[in-house]
Description:
This protein is α/β, with parallel strands linked by helices. The chain folds into 2 domains: 140 residues, 3-Layer(aba) Sandwich (Rossmann fold), CATH 3.40.50; 188 residues, Dihydrodipicolinate Reductase, domain 2, CATH 3.30.360. The protein contains 11 helices and 15 strands. α9 crosses α11.
Amino acid sequence: MHGMSPVRVALIGTGGIAGAHLDAYSRVKEAEVVAVCDIVPEKAEAAAKRWNVPKWFTDYRKVLQLPEVEAVDICTPHAVHAPIALAALKAGKHVLVEKPMTSNLKDAVKLVKAAKESGKVLFCGIKSRWAPSTQQVKKFIESGALGEIYFAEIVATRRRGIPGWGSTFIRKETAGGGVVLDLGVYLVDTILYLLGFPKPLTCSAIVGGFIGNQPEAVVHGGWWWNPDEFEVDDFGAAFLRFENGTAAVIKVCWAAHIDSLGTSFLLGTKGGLKLTNPPEWFFDHAGYMAQTKLPQAGDSDGFVREVQFFVDAIRNGTPPPVLPEEALTVQAVLDAIYRSANLKREVQVTIPKF
Ligand SMILES: NC(=O)c1ccc[n+]([C@@H]2O[C@H](COP(=O)([O-])OP(=O)(O)OC[C@H]3O[C@@H](n4cnc5c(N)ncnc54)[C@H](O)[C@@H]3O)[C@@H](O)[C@H]2O)c1
């Protein structure tokens, strides 16, 4: 990479999370943001000013016409990822897209196909993948300490954390779905990764918006949102079966009348692990039941690393930590969760092949 010019990036969607991305670019010398874009002109202009970006736009199609732009970073709402990513790949740009890759499986397939055809990088920034805590557990599993993992549970609880800013997370048109997409994507990716991406077979799930449309649920100490605009899910629970015989439970909520949906854990033939930080390992030793805490995983700047992965993939061909096919499998599981909930029965998880 020595001596190469920085990767010239355009960032699209200068809302809540864009600042963390722009800050990360300012710290990675191999990348340079040359344009920002938002449909709200004031937002695009403010981001350009704050981060010293030379050009700002309100129409992403204009950005894609700029010859100097090699890559785009898409920070728009979930349902607005796919059209921009697809157009960008077709325009020959590399794509970093915020999680979830798309708001539905059909769009995910289009994106992965377009990336294959264009030969450009498609990297979905599912940050939990390279979090030190995930990497620590992955290494521990690989040490063999747990034996064969036959069951796992993974949860994320917010007692009252419905994202209300700009409403883009709670309106169907912009979000595509609610907490199952927003936080479920982290859980599905983490559990698939920790289990070594076994082939998912079936899924049985319930999903719903049980709290989000109740005005009285906007309470002190919780996040603010407008219940009148709430059109998506705030709870999901799923049971997944894999081809290798393993099963996993996924539970996630933005709001619930409980302090916790439980603890995430892995059960193996030789040991079990609670996915707390630090993780707690349960095993038998010298005729006794033993347990011990692993060291606490450190911190790392997830966004700086994300930008660095993106740059390395573009300049050096290093595969990004989340491969397009993996993001597609995650999307197939999310799709099965919604399908099962809608049909009120178990469904097959279909992973499109092409
Ligand atoms: N990695 C993380 O930790 C993390 C945290 C929060 C959000 N996110 C993800 O980042 C994405 C954005 O979330 P956010 O909180 O910034 O949302 P947001 O609603 O605050 O910002 C989205 C921005 O996109 C703009 N936009 C919408 N349509 C557009 C279009 N066609 N062209 C250009 N701009 C457009 C909106 O005007 C808005 O400013 C989501 O995918 C979300 O899941 C990731």
